[in-house]
Design brief:
The chain has 22 helices and twelve strands.
Length: 572
């Protein structure tokens, strides 16, 4: 079948170990044809050379989300009137959502069918206008859009937080909505683009899924949405008190909640990556009957050597591996390790990872200072050099050349996060056959499944007790590590992920086939325009095509036998 893959991020520029999960999915499903439609958020990727793609990837079309969005389209009076009506209805539905039940928790009242219908009707009205007028980037940033938003915020019944939005708040929300609605102006939704696909697979919510909604609206192409990190949750975390004013946070939360509800309502099947994401989707109105949990697929082969050598690491060493930022709560880990050292003086801690941005660099510096204060350099004698039991390293250092070497350096892998989605690092430790101690956040309990120890987050004492228990019991470490590796190989491999999506693709196409009507030269419907062979993978026409060998029945080439008058009379 032909799959339109809607992505957002570095693909198809990222490759190798940095490639996203859907790159491995495309390479594993060679029996299907993929057309990639990528939304790029990074300006530096625009001039980079794309990574080599497999031959069954037909085309790659990209659109930037980081550009200014000016399209130079001048709309006439009728188009401006339509835009004012549709955009005004859209923002009125958003403002009404801010006061709906559940808005205090950051989630719009998706049970209100009237609001959902109003939002969807306005959204598709804008898409139809963009298709006819040639784009809406300028209109979405115009004074008309700002005035429509202001009018919706000042309307009777709007909550006080939205009514108090000032000019700067209105401009900030308008600019954000323009970027979020930029897929409306793309030229992807014709018979030569997504309209030619049998299925649209959006690899995330938000703008990527919006492209799938429009392909479904214009061309009837069924939509599959995969969320390994819930986009709506990410918006709530990004728009913290320090990032925006209360009015901006309220309006943007309502918009993204309403967009998520529309995506969940229209998608044929939703595939969250864990139960935590599934609960978010259900809270936003997703039908449980259309949800299939599919765990991310990870390449297990590079961890084979470490996984088959459980005694390779130091028996007294704890290891933490990941991207350094405040959500990883390394401060609690350092305080927990101070208690571990009181019980096990020979214990050591290796923190392996690079900082995530400027905030991560500042946090890493703070952790280094804290480690130096908690653990002064120790020396074995008066003439020996001091050594700190806590070390900070990055992948690629002489003693840790690769990621599997980082996990294999110790006996116990620790996850101390205060906030987590799907714990990729925990799965990697399981592939390496290491016993783990993790905090109960995100999908940790679902992933570990009884093959490791789990403690409450932000509790250094509980974290220390669990680490000490494993350091003192090598047989238990070995049993847990073996069980963790077996669980990871059963649930979290690329092969398992690929097989699951192959079955879901077939399920969607069998229940929701795209109905395309071919017309002849006179404009009349042309029956049987697409032969049955067009659904079978491979090339059936052209110079390289060949007939399949088969036996020819003898009666085909023999002389036909004429029926006798008696036989004709008997047949009557």
């Amino acid at each position: 079948m032909r799959v339109g893959l809607l992505t957002e991020g570095d693909f198809p520029h990222a490759c190798g170990d940095a490639s996203p999960w859907y790159d491995r999915l495309v390479r594993g499903l060679g029996q299907h044809r993929f057309d990639v439609y990528a939304l790029s958020r990074a300006p530096h990727r625009a001039g980079e050379r794309r990574a080599p793609l497999p031959p069954h990837v037909g085309r790659v079309r990209t659109a930037p989300l980081w550009a200014t969005g000016e399209d130079g389209v001048a709309h006439g009076r009728r188009a401006r009137r339509r835009f004012t009506e549709c955009y005004g209805e859209l923002v009125r539905a958003v403002c009404a959502s801010t006061g709906a039940r559940g808005a205090s928790a950051g989630i719009a009242d998706v049970g209100s069918g009237d609001l959902a219908d109003r939002f969807g009707s306005a959204l598709y009205g804008l898409a139809e206008l963009a298709r006819e007028a040639g784009g809406l980037a300028g209109a979405l940033r115009s004074d008309i859009a700002v005035r429509a938003l202001e009018h919706a915020c000042r309307a009777p019944g709007t909550p006080r937080t939205a009514r108090e939005a000032g000019v700067s708040d209105l401009l900030a929300v308008t600019a954000h909505l323009e970027r979020a609605l930029r897929p409306l102006s793309l030229d992807w939704y014709d018979d030569d683009g997504l309209g030619a696909a049998d299925l649209c697979h959006a690899t995330a919510g938000g703008p990527a899924a919006l492209g799938g909604l429009l392909a479904r609206h214009f061309c009837g192409v069924p939509l599959l949405v995969t969320e390994y990190g819930v986009r709506l949750r990410g918006h709530y975390l990004t728009l913290g008190p320090d990032a925006a004013t209360p009015a901006v946070r309220t309006l943007l939360a309502a918009f993204h909640g309403r967009l998520a509800a529309e995506v969940y309502r229209r998608a044929e099947i939703l595939t969250p990556g864990n139960a935590h994401a599934r609960r978010w989707q259900e809270r936003c109105g997703a039908d449980r009957a259309r949800i299939r949990t599919v765990y991310p697929g990870m390449a297990a082969d590079r961890f084979t050597e470490a996984g088959e050598s459980p005694d390779r690491g130091d028996a007294d060493t704890l290891v933490w591996v990941g991207r350094v930022d405040p959500t990883k709560d390394l401060v609690s880990l350092l305080h927990a390790f101070a208690e571990v050292r009181r019980e096990e003086p020979r214990a050591r801690l290796r923190i392996v990872g690079a900082p995530s941005g400027a905030e991560g660099a500042a946090y890493l510096g703070h952790c280094r200072v804290l480690a130096a204060r908690l653990f002064p350099d120790e020396a074995g004698g008066a003439h020996a050099a001091g050594d700190n039991p806590v070390s900070f390293r990055e992948i690629g250092a002489p003693e840790i050349p690769t990621l599997p070497d980082a996990y294999a350096a110790g006996a116990v892998v620790v996850l101390s996060s205060a906030l987590e989605g799907f714990p990729v690092g925990l799965v990697e430790a399981m592939f390496c056959g290491r016993a783990t101690v993790s905090t109960d956040v995100g999908a940790v309990v679902e992933v570990i499944g009884g093959t490791g120890l789990v403690v409450p987050p932000r509790n250094p004492r509980a974290l220390a007790e669990a680490c000490v228990a494993l350091l003192r019991d090598p047989e238990r470490r070995e049993r847990l590590g073996a069980a963790a590796r077996a669980r990871a190989l059963e649930l979290f491999t690329v092969e398992r992920n690929t097989a699951a999506f192959h079955g879901i693709y077939l399920e969607i196409v069998s229940h929701c086939p795209v109905r395309r009507v071919a017309l002849d030269e006179s404009g009349e419907p042309l029956p049987f325009a697409a032969p049955a062979e067009s659904r079978v993978p491979g090339h059936w026409t052209g110079p390289t095509a060949r007939a399949l060998p088969r036996a020819i029945p003898g009666w085909v080439t023999s002389t036909p036998v004429r029926a006798t008058p008696a036989a004709v009379e008997a047949a009557r």
